[in-house]
Write a structure and sequence with these properties.
Oligomer: single chain
Distance between the termini: 45 Å
Strand order of the largest sheet: 6-5-15-16-17-14-18
Strand content: 15-25%
């Protein structure tokens, strides 16, 4: 029997490392030693992050006050992601968080709306989404649910500076006993019998031993790949973009409560509005456009003056074959990479931490636990991968890159989902996959997929009843949106951050 696994060593800080440290400090109790090894010489990738609503659960589980968090990270609020020019130039839609209408009887709302649309109705799907209507007006206020009243249907996430979030969580962690060591790792010591990691060696000569190692070393995968040879699943056949450029620029008004993704010649550009700056980036495929062209596209489409020159990242979309191998668990970029089109990077860190805590070892490692964890993370990555591929596959744009994406084969799991929706508007969510039926609905419709029919039970309403049902749903969504304050006004009143010099904000 192995000794109790009480010594946890986290290799690398950044968002992934400090999220893990904070969660372990909060939930594992005083019997565990948590040690973060971080080097100031190694920069982090994030220059700004957009998230999805699940981040609220993580912060709440740590007991973090929302206003304090937003203030400390120069944050803003996010009601969804606007997609510009993705289906074809001039077209836009939003993947809005929260509800789209209300179910009736056995059917979700969209089957009634599909009947309306197929019979010549002119309303938009997003007329029934309170967050979509609020985003269009640059409004935001947290939902105020009242007993006996209809649920607001509002869900939201955040934009924040990733470096400031890591610093915020570092302070949280160190206040709860987490130890940080500054240093560069130059060696990994493996157990000759089991092949497990026994210790890492720093450039100073210091050796840090541990029972469980968390690899947050970024794309390199210092432990999971270089030491343990996990292997990597390459998904570039489905997601061919392999480069990104990132640069912050000056803020402009209004402060929009949504992320924007704009399709470009051979990829897409992100826009993430924070209080002190706007984060921008260009994700592209170098097989179809040069780095110089990609840089020009990014720099010519900024809202304000850039703060510095763009920083380039090169990547291969995919994941480690084993995210947990022996006594090492990879988090963040060390575990894999999916482009941030749907703001899932931090969610994948959060999901892995939650699953690791669920399968946390007691006094020894069981392969059954490791296998179950890996199976769940495989599903998490695969389901998000399919959702991202959908944006590329269902397009009507000109150009070699977009033609390639439109004509490429896609995973059978995605092809089946698309075919099911195009038949009669049905969407099936499998095994609590991250994106709900409403997420799939908005992107499939927004990307131009059109069902040939709808559920026959939607015909049980008379035309007058259908009109009344849709009218009530629209009025409710509009009422909720109109009750919100302007986004900037809410931040100014509740969680405005102190001024921050940009030279200090840049990594």
């Amino acid at each position: 029997m192995e000794s109790a696994l009480k010594q946890i060593v986290i290799v690398g800080g950044g968002t992934a490392g400090w999220m893990a440290a904070a969660a372990f400090a909060r939930f594992l109790g005083p019997g565990y030693s948590i040690h973060v090894i971080e080097s100031d010489e190694i920069g982090t990738v994030g220059v700004g992050e957009a998230t999805i609503p699940a981040i609220q659960l993580f912060n709440q589980s740590l007991g973090i006050d929302e206003k304090e968090f937003v203030r400390a990270t120069q944050g803003s609020f996010k009601l969804g992601i606007e997609f510009v020019d993705w289906h074809d130039p001039g077209h836009r839609y939003i993947h809005a968080f929260g509800a789209v209408g209300r179910p009736l009887g056995l059917l979700p709302f969209h089957h009634y709306w599909l009947r309306h649309h197929q019979q010549g109705g002119s309303s938009s799907l997003w007329d029934y989404a309170p967050t979509a209507l609020a985003a269009a007006q640059n409004r935001f206020t947290p939902p105020q649910e009242k007993p006996g009243a209809l649920p607001s249907g509002v869900s939201y996430a955040y934009h924040f500076d990733a470096g400031l979030y890591a610093g915020f969580l570092r302070r949280y962690s160190e206040a709860r006993g987490v130890v940080r060591t500054e240093g560069m790792i130059v060696g990994t010591e493996l157990n000759s019998q089991r092949g497990h990691i026994d210790a890492v060696t720093l450039s100073s000569g210091a050796k840090i031993s541990g029972d469980l190692f968390i690899d947050c070393s970024g794309f390199r995968g210092l432990l999971i790949e270089e030491a343990l040879n996990s292997g990597y699943e390459d998904w570039s056949e489905y997601l061919p973009c392999n480069c990104a450029l990132a640069v912050p620029c000056a803020s402009v008004t209004p402060l929009t409560p949504y992320t924007r993704s704009t399709a470009r010649e051979a990829g897409w550009q992100w826009r993430i509005p924070l209080q002190h700056r706007t984060g921008n980036g260009h994700v592209y495929c170098s097989d179809f456009i040069s780095d110089a062209q990609a840089t020009d596209i990014l720099m010519q489409n900024l809202d304000g003056a850039p703060f510095g020159e763009p920083r380039q990242l090169r990547f291969v979309t995919g994941k480690r074959k084993q995210i947990w191998k022996k006594n090492c668990v990879a988090l963040g970029l060390a575990s894999g990479f999916l482009e941030p089109l749907e703001s899932t990077s931090i969610h994948l860190i959060q999901a892995a931490i939650a699953k690791l805590l669920n399968f946390f070892p007691s006094d020894h490692l069981d392969q059954a636990d490791i296998d179950a964890f890996n199976a769940q993370m495989d599903f998490e990555f695969h389901s998000i991968r399919d959702f991202i591929i959908l944006h590329y596959k269902a397009n009507n744009r000109d150009g070699a890159f977009w033609k390639h994406c439109r004509e490429m084969d896609v995973p059978e799991s995605l092809a089946a989902k698309m075919e099911l929706f195009q038949a009669n508007g049905r969407i099936v969510r499998h095994n609590d996959e991250l994106f709900t039926e409403l997420g799939w609905l908005q992107v499939m419709w927004g990307q131009g997929l059109r069902p040939r029919g709808y559920h026959p039970l939607a015909d049980q309403l008379t035309p007058a009843q259908l009109d009344e049902f849709l009218n009530v749903a629209h009025k409710h969504a509009a009422f909720v949106a109109n009750q919100m304050a302007p986004h900037q006004d809410y931040i100014t009143a509740q969680c405005a951050a102190p001024p921050l010099e940009m030279k200090k904000a840049l990594p």
